[in-house]
Amino acid sequence: MDINLLFKIAAIGILVAVLNQVLVRAGREDQAMMTTLAGIVIVLSIVINEISQLFTMVRTLFNL
Prior knowledge:
Blueprint: H1 3-25, H2 29-61
């Protein structure tokens, strides 16, 4: 696993947290929730891509 992946996920988390707090303070709770959901979807897509590459590597390793 590459350390850049962890930094990327952490950066997305920090950005989403800051945007969420700004939008909540501005009274835009709906947009804050949508921003949080978008951040979760982005991180999940990154993680699913990495898991897919792991399964491909295991499949190649064991000649399946």
